[in-house]
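Incident review: delayed structure delivery

Summary: a single-chain prediction request sat in the queue longer than the usual turnaround. Root cause was a stuck worker, restarted by the on-call engineer. No data loss occurred. The affected request and its eventual output are reproduced below so the record is complete for anyone auditing the incident later.

Affected input:
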Amino acid sequence: MANPEITASSSLAANPATENKAFIILISCIATIGGFLFGYDSGVINGTVDGIQVAFNSDSVGTGFNVASMLLGCALGAALAGRLADLYGRKAMLILSAIFFLVSAWGTGISTTSEWFIFFRVVGGFAVGAASVMTPAYISEVAPARYRGRLATIQQVAIISGLTAAFLSNYLLADISGSALNPLWMSYETWRWMFWVELVPAGIFLLALFLIPESPRYLVARHKDESALNTLSRLYGAQEANKKLNEIQQTVSKSSDKPKLSDLYDQATQKIRPIIWIGIGLAVFQQFVGINVVFYYGAVLWQSVGFSESDALFINILSGSLSIAACLVTIVLVDKIGRKPLLWFGSIGMAVTLSITAYAFSTATVGESGQPQLSDTMGTLALIFANLYVIFFNMSWGPVMWVMLGEMFPNRIRGLGLAIAGFFQWIANFAITMTFPIMLGSVGLAGSYGFYAVCAAVSAVFVYKMVQETKGKELEQMQG
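Output delivered after worker restart:
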């Protein structure tokens, strides 16, 4: 017998003739400013590592924790955001994250001790974690299925744009002062101003959020059907609003006021739903391929094989620009060929490019300064294939993982599912970021990149065997 939810799905698609496409795109873009700040907050640390190390007199482990401490806040923010969003709304959590971005940007720049710096980075991490979960959730809950993937992919474009903006800002500020360690304006070191630049986009994000409506699916879950109907009318037109409201009501249980942790269990098997494990797998593999080593430690990485500070910061800008271009390709393809093929293609591409990059790094020799040096040929090879790796990531796992997490869970458990997957994503991010300086000192760049290449190869098998396609399905069709 056919599943009644699937049978009824023929009417789920919004009517293109009546929907307010410009409004849907506008509010989705406002939500993705959170992604921009996610990227900026993640990337700004890249050019400040040397300044932080000198300012707080930290060793390699201490520096690693100063860099990675934000990720603990990210894990906390992601874990709590889904639950809090189910209680107070997606919009409310985005507003809270904007406030935390502002507090963190100011506090990290003004910090005079490692302890205060870590505190404000954790505050910023909470904002990043909350935004990383809420932005794709919000977009998936307001956008029609036929271009939901494209709008959700804008989140990754925003993240990479934020990273690139941070790299560019770091590069320009360091160029003005001569180094991240030198004083810039008002006698404050340049690395502090690198953090303070974030105050501008964070303020814009906070103000713009007051222009967006609450998610209609959240409103239905909270028994606010009239408000949900008004929002649906603004999104899809009055003619479609009642029909869409009824469809959402069919999949959002009214048996209790809020989702429960027990909803994560399959009542028939009394085990955690497989969709939760798949979400965790997607989240963890996205980090175990090592992408954030490039974005957090890019300047240190390239300087370690002979590039100058200025050249290393410029390479970061190049990587960020290539990432944006790769995401634009994904926007074109994600709703045409689907999510799963892009993930599988990306895994294979990353495994190959990481392996070649690892080989190039394995040829490094020790220079007169005691630092590893690459020949011109191998330096060029490493640079090309490291950037090809970044392109493969941002054509696949970078945007598509967030697209899938935002849409793969049933309405009832979307907040909880996103919270759990987001938590594991940031814990994996923390583990990779914290261990890289240690791996760099023990197995070197070749060993580190070899490990990430193996993880990329394993992720291809995971996608092939475990991941189900979600292209073209309305959220009310997700079974979990």
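Verification: The longest helix spans residues 145-177.
Action items: add queue-age alerting; document worker restart procedure.
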